[in-house]
Structure formats: C-alpha cells, structure tokens
C-alpha cells in the first residue's frame, strides 16, 4: 500500500514523499509527476534507486528533517 507522507521543497522544486513500505520511500517531482528514485530511511539514509542519487539524497534528508518519514532518531550508547 502506498501512502503519501507529504511534500518537501528542495532548491525551489516541490517533491512528494510516498511510503512504499516500512522505511522505504519514493521521491516524486510534483511539476511533472516524475519518479526520481527511492530511498530507505533506516538504519541510515540510503538511496536505493534513481538517476540523480545526490538529489534523491537531498530530498530524503529534507523529508526526514521535516518529519515526512516514520524515521525516529535514537542515540546509540
């Protein structure tokens, strides 16, 4: 089941964050409804597909920082 988690803006462009499964998300550019790639939010942020991995990583970080993913930071002792 896909679930839209929200929108984030990076570099003046808006992207939709879609949850594919637990901890796995797709980045979709709103302008043309194009999928840019996917990322995993845990245990660490990792781009799993995409032609511009650097952009997907920037969007993934923005999504995590703005609470658009289910990722929860934990301190490791």
What does this structure look like?
By secondary structure, the protein is α+β, with helices and mostly antiparallel strands. It has one domain. Helices cover 17% and strands 45% of the residues. It has one helix and five strands. The protein has one helix spanning 53-65; strands spanning 3-10, 13-21, 24-29, 34-40, 46-50. The chain has a five-stranded antiparallel beta sheet with strand order 1-2-3-4-5, covered by helices on one side. The longest helix is centred in the last third of the chain and has 13 residues, at 53-65.
Task: Describe the structure using short key phrases.
5 strands; 77 residues; 1 helix; 45% strand; alpha+beta; 17% helix; 5-stranded antiparallel beta sheet
Summarize the structure.
This protein is 17% helix and 45% strand. With 77 residues, it is α+β, with helices and mostly antiparallel strands.
Major sheet description: 5 strands, antiparallel
Strand content: over 45%
Number of helices: 1
Helix content: 10-25%
Residue-averaged pLDDT, rounded? 87
Q: Calculate the terminal CA-CA distance, rounded to whole Å.
A: 35 Å
Estimated radius of gyration: 12 Å
Q: How many structural domains does the protein architecture include?
A: 1
Name the strands of the widest sheet in spatial order.
Answer: 1-2-3-4-5
Shape verdict: globular
Q: Uncertain runs with pLDDT below 50, 5 residues or more? A: none
Overall strand count: 5
Listing every helix as H and every strand as E from the N terminus to the C terminus, the arrangement reads EEEEEH
Based on secondary structure, the structural category is alpha+beta
